Amino acid sequence: MSGIRIGIVTVSDRASRGEYEDLGGPAIQAWFQDVVASPWQAIVRLIPDEQDAIEATLRELCDDKGCCLVVTTGGTGPALRDVTPEATRAVLDKELEGFGEQMRRASLAFVPTAILSRQTAGVRGRSLILNLPGKPKAIGECLEAVMAAVPYCIDLVGGPRMETRPERVVAFRPKA
Amino acid sequence: MSGIRIGIVTVSDRASRGEYEDLGGPAIQAWFQDVVASPWQAIVRLIPDEQDAIEATLRELCDDKGCCLVVTTGGTGPALRDVTPEATRAVLDKELEGFGEQMRRASLAFVPTAILSRQTAGVRGRSLILNLPGKPKAIGECLEAVMAAVPYCIDLVGGPRMETRPERVVAFRPKA
Amino acid sequence: MSGIRIGIVTVSDRASRGEYEDLGGPAIQAWFQDVVASPWQAIVRLIPDEQDAIEATLRELCDDKGCCLVVTTGGTGPALRDVTPEATRAVLDKELEGFGEQMRRASLAFVPTAILSRQTAGVRGRSLILNLPGKPKAIGECLEAVMAAVPYCIDLVGGPRMETRPERVVAFRPKA
In this model, does residue A42 exceed pLDDT 90? Predict the structure, then answer.
């Protein structure tokens, strides 16, 4: 059986040209390996900081591959080439501002430059799309801050049931 | 005398069809009964999760009924039928992002899924419009978190003076 | 030598007509005098709450005067004449939502009406534009809350290196 699908998209000019090893994508995959209890498979992509390419990849992973969760790493800062939030907003049906607020607040406990991150999240069809930072250390900090809400969000948009290992993250589902 | 007017809009497909008792609207009314000291009357509406109907109701309560404060309950989540924030933004003159941030932060003390709420607020003419959650328990938590700023906001847009019972909520008005 | 340039824009109908002394602009200038260690000069403007005038002033200070940082004071509330955030968003290339979140959170420690502020920030070309409140006391509270991230933000968009006095604000620059 294939289980649920999680899309992992590394957005980086240098890594996509092979000038730089992609550390963000593998860090995300290892984190979910540790936390997600349901059978799942990763669908990974490595693309440059091009808005069209990011949008096309997000649409493919949500619409064609049926990923219930798609996470990106990289491209969320203020620099000219950082366009991941713009691409994400362009494909979202509904933006969920609370994710960006919560991830920035969590990162502020570590670095004051967390306010420079433009990370966001939202839903497209039956998928949740979530921007993560580029730095591997910051990826785990952000996922820890929001993961408890992810399975219920996927429930609400009609996606598959995702279970977590409760010793790592307790997925919260309000009583009806 | 009629006093000031507060619009209370329950947005719910099921409650508007009578399949479900509206608990949110009465919870809001009871909360304001306890907190607002000025003479006031509630103008209540119960409508389905339809963006056009929500927009029309918000316009009616602000423009025709002269409500200085209009609160909604329901329809702020990520699901397909949740369109209250979209309808609210469509009729606002100015969005006040701080309300949504503060209400999500307050709710996070109770449930990690608070980040899924898309609640917002803002002004239309001389009225403040404020989205609240659908669950009665969460309504009070959110109102407690923002009410101290509501009377001064209404002052700033030229609405009537609203007084609160200070043993419940101290309305803050900065010295000029 | 001229050093780096910081634009300081007071937005106020009354102060621009001379009915009221501009206290915000001088408060900002004094704050930076205390905190910025690099040689710098202030370029100051005093304009009414008119969206066109604010946009033109922000463009002039960023594009023609080469200010790496432009701060505004005033016009961020919910009132009809408050249009500084609208003007700011109209000229930004990228909005940085984390600044507004962090400044509102910092101000909430002092006044519950901090949630009424619509302050934002973002980048235009090689400049960072930052909205501050109108009240001199609140200006310092907001600058203290975000300044550690300002020099690195300017680095990221290709602006000049700004140094701070570390006994006042430690500018944070992540290791590459």
Answer: yes
